[in-house]
Design a protein that fits this description.
By secondary structure, the protein is an alpha/beta fold. Helix content is 17%, strand content 28%. Helix 3 links the parallel strand 14 and strand 15.
């Protein structure tokens, strides 16, 4: 009986050792499956170009069997900016994968239907204007200071994790609500041509950073003039702009 008990204990220890030996490599593999320094995007146009500032080991998989690196790009030494260009043989959907830690990224006007920057946390400036984006996740981009995503089809945008954000351009989307209560560095805000009601605008104004007691700090909101025919939001004429003005913000008319 004693030998049988010892055998059972040894068997249990051996089984646990095998489980641990197998599980640790699996966890290590799981980490490698989601590396950082990656941007992915989907486009349907034939001619694509974008600019990037970052490490010089940037590589691109264009999604049609062709690949590029910094040796294939135009390089502006004064700005450390790489310009990548690519022509597709037809107007079909292509997924582009960019590898490399990128701090500035411009991908405006290239027919994007999807953009994923969640695995590039060092990004500080993103310009994805004039595309067809219906969603954009910047929750992992906590270093972001400038975001330009005007002329897309965004209904919502969560910038709650972007405390360093200084400038936000949301002109001509479909935004119905915007919360900037965590954007304590925000100084420039473009919100022309969205779907913000007077109530939504007033709520936005109340959550702006308060610069009223700071001598060298102020903010500016780009809106339209108080006119029924002006390009703007539904609440453009009826919102209470004094709420923002009392917090040290001014208004600039966008025509």
């Amino acid at each position: 009986m004693k030998n049988r008990s010892i055998f059972k204990k040894c068997s249990a220890i051996l089984a646990m050792t095998i489980i641990l030996a197998v599980s640790f490599p699996l966890k290590a593999c799981a980490k490698e499956e989601n590396p950082t320094g990656i941007i992915t995007m989907t486009t349907t146009v034939r001619e694509v170009w974008f600019t990037a500032v970052g490490t010089k080991d940037i590589t691109i998989d264009w999604g049609d069997g062709k690949k590029s690196n910094v040796n294939d790009a135009e390089y502006f030494e004064d700005s450390d900016m790489f310009v990548f260009r690519h022509d597709y043989s037809g107007e079909t959907t292509h997924s582009i994968v960019i590898n490399g830690n990128i701090t500035w990224f411009t991908c405006a006007s290239i027919g994007l239907t999807a953009l994923d920057v969640s695995r590039n946390p060092v990004l500080t400036r993103l310009d994805c204007r004039n595309n067809q984006l219906t969603a954009l996740d910047v929750s992992k981009n906590t270093a972001l200071t400038e975001l330009r995503c005007s002329q897309n089809q965004l209904v919502t945008l969560d910038v709650g994790k972007n405390a360093a954000l200084e400038s936000l351009d949301l002109n001509f989307n479909q935004i119905t609500h915007l919360n900037v209560s965590n954007n304590t560095s925000l100084g420039v805000l473009y919100i022309v041509g969205n779907q913000l009601t007077a109530s939504a605008l007033n709520d936005l104004f109340r959550k702006l950073p308060d610069y009223s007691k700071l001598e060298n700090m102020s903010g500016v909101i780009y809106l339209t003039e108080r006119h029924p025919l002006a390009i703007g939001n539904p609440g453009n004429s009826d919102c209470d702009r004094s709420i923002a003005i009392e917090r040290g913000w001014g208004f600039m008319s966008w025509r």
